[in-house]
Write a structure and sequence with these properties.
By secondary structure, the protein is an alpha+beta fold. It has two domains: 64 residues, Nucleic acid-binding proteins (OB fold (Dihydrolipoamide Acetyltransferase, E2P), Beta Barrel), CATH 2.40.50.140; 55 residues. It contains two helices and five strands, in the order βββββαα. A five-stranded antiparallel beta sheet has the order 3-2-1-4-5, with no helix packed on it. β1 and β2 form a beta hairpin. α1 runs antiparallel to α2. The longest helix is centred in the C-terminal third of the chain and has 23 residues. The protein is flat. The mean pLDDT is 89.
């Protein structure tokens, strides 16, 4: 199984690139990350399968071998700031809830944004 390190990855764009140990850049889609993993940091060591795509070589079935330590996970958000974030997310949820009551589902972009916010809050509460 090929391996390499993450060159860069953008959560907003939903993709990034791996510098494979063989020396080529490999496209990394967010959908190829392991279940429950939404992003990877530069320098993360990965193993992956490779398939040819219209973008060139693309990583499939990614396995994280070694992730660099995260300084962000060791720092918790100030409780007052976290409270403000939670209050704003409640407003976002109210908007979605009211739309659903009127038969309007959130767009894919709105749903993805709300999911990222809720996962971020959950990570802060669990830290």
């Amino acid at each position: 199984m090929p391996s390499g390190r993450v060159k860069w990855f953008s959560l907003e764009k939903g993709f990034g690139f791996i510098a494979s140990d063989e020396g080529e850049d490999v496209y990394l889609a967010a959908s190829s990350l392991p279940a429950g993993v939404t992003t990877v940091k530069p320098g993360t060591k990965l193993e992956f399968g490779v398939a040819d795509s219209r973008r060139g070589p693309q990583a499939l079935s990614v396995v994280i071998i070694d992730a660099p330590p995260s300084l962000a996970e060791n720092n918790r958000i100030n409780p007052d700031d976290l409270a403000a974030i939670i209050e704003d997310s409640i407003k976002m949820l109210d908007k979605v809830g009211n739309g659903l009551r009127h038969g309007r589902r959130p767009t894919a972009a709105e749903a993805e944004r709300l999911g990222r916010v809720l996962r971020g809050i959950a990570a802060q509460l669990e830290a």
